[in-house]
Amino acid sequence: MRGMRYLLRLGVLAACGFASTSGPAAAADTPRADLSPCRLLGFDRDAQCGKVSRPLDPTRPGGTAVEIHFAVLPAVARNKKPDPVFFFAGGPGQSAIDLAGPVSRMLGRFSNRRDIVLVDQRGTGRSAPLKCDDDRPTRPLRESADLSRLTDAWVRCRQALSALPHGDLRQYTTTIAMQDADAVRRALGVTKINAIGGSYGTRAVLDYLRQFPQQVRRAVIDGVAPPDMVLPMSFSTDAQSAFDALLGTCERDTLCQRQFPQLREQWHALLRALPQEVMLQHPVTLQDEKLTLTRDMVTGMARMPLYAPALAAALPLAVSEASRGRFAPLAGLSSALGSGGGRATSMAQGMHFSVICAEDMPRLEQATDRPGADFGTAYLDMYRKACAEWPRGSVPAEFYQVPATPVPTLVLSGGIDPVTPPRHGERVSKALGAKARHVVVPNAGHGVMALGCMRDVLFRFVDADDGEAALAQLDAACVQGIPRPPAFVPPRVEGRS
């Protein structure tokens, strides 16, 4: 889950399609899926694509229908396992199908004997998409960096989306989407799945596990966004903690402290000097643009690199340069996560707000988090405005509860994650009970399943035939050795006073 753009950093015979997967016949109300070969961006073999028809409004089964699209990355082995991996994307608003390339690489070991299923949650990708037309990478910096301008654009987007045939924005909650996912399971003739989700995808997995516990064999949630998390409040709290930790790390590191001895003071002086008119080069168009940087814009720029420690390593330099009026490094870092462009980095903003406005905002008064001293209420103010007239779906009270799980569940957290830090994973792990294990990768940011030995830890946990053995034999000690990248100090900075 990210502010506006969360990027998850995350073999094979086409003939081995999912239609041949063993399992009971599909439920009477869900016909078996009709799959056909398809090519997916970043996946170098034929996949199998299909769709199921679902009522837009579950209370009106005879009303408007939407098509839920999914893709199967087929296993290589003919004698494959009957329980596929279902991967749930982040955001909310990411297309799982558009992540076929990164997911296939991240979960590559599973592809030998398990199919990997990617479901475009309703409102994303190919499934009744709720995309805003002006969410374009060439948007002027003064618009893309200014939350107030973005909010105005999303208000206009809401009006346009509401006019679509599938534009009842109340029907895009996580609970309804997980019912869609189970319809896909039934259409594939599968008895049990292994549910894996990252960021917002963890909320999806938790709700699928709540609604359909008997259909889950193993669960893995990476970067936990609990159902009772009030995202607009926790954004600021968790970003502040991550940034303060970065400053503290620099103060304790000999090289960083020597090169940036006044970093904390420079940061606070920078904030006091805002607003400030600057000239910046657009990262896509490469055109120079004049804009007025505000405090909210600068803290937003500083927040984004915190997702990835390799990028955060350059923040001391970027902050130091910005305090001297040179904002190009900070602006460049802030756009680096989405610099690849393309479908994999895009977000269906309409679906994003349908989820947050229905699930998070009604609980704003119950939130215990408080805004960070530096990061303030910018995101909260944005969501307040965007959600003021956004149609809110109905969310059952039990959605916000995390019951004890009968399913072995691996909970993963990055120790320096600025949006879903370990405090959320720890709370969820305790609620899940005896069959949950919480693994913290101390020096990792947002999303840890693709890091070093974690791929093997994840595979062994899911692949073990016996669930109790998977829990008893879980060994993630190797993650303690994953280092935090040192502060970036280019040669030109060395020796500078």
Low-confidence stretches: 2-28
Q: Provide the CATH superfamily of the domain at 18-130 and 170-230 and 397-481.
A: Alpha/Beta hydrolase fold, catalytic domain
Per CATH, what is the topology of the domain at 18-130 and 170-230 and 397-481? Answer: Rossmann fold
What is the residue-mean pLDDT, rounded to a whole number?
A: 89
CA-atom Rg in angstroms: 22 Å
Number of strands: 11
Please give the CATH class of the domain at 18-130 and 170-230 and 397-481. Answer: Alpha Beta
Beginning-to-end CA distance, first to last residue? 39 Å
List the helices and strands and how they pair.
Blueprint: E1 36-38, E2 47-55, E3 65-73, E4 85-88, H1 100-106, E5 116-119, H2 141-144, H3 147-162, H4 174-187, E6 193-198, H5 200-211, E7 216-222, H6 231-252, H7 254-259, H8 263-272, E8 276-281, E9 288-293, H9 295-303, H10 309-312, H11 315-322, H12 328-335, H13 349-359, H14 378-387, E10 409-414, H15 422-432, E11 436-441, H16 454-463, H17 467-472
Parallel strand pairs: 4-5, 4-6, 6-7, 7-10, 10-11
Antiparallel strand pairs: 1-2, 2-3, 3-5, 8-9
Describe this structure in a few short sentences.
With 497 residues, the chain is an alpha/beta fold.
What does this structure look like?
By secondary structure, this protein is an alpha/beta fold. It has a domain at 18-130 and 170-230 and 397-481: Alpha/Beta hydrolase fold, catalytic domain (Rossmann fold, 3-Layer(aba) Sandwich). It is built from 17 helices and eleven strands. The strands form two sheets. Strands 1-2-3-5-4-6-7-10-11 form a nine-stranded mixed beta sheet, with helices on both faces. A two-stranded antiparallel sheet has the order 8-9. The longest helix has 22 residues, at 231-252. It starts with 35 loop residues before the first strand and ends in a 25-residue tail after the last helix. Mean pLDDT is 89; it is low at 2-28.
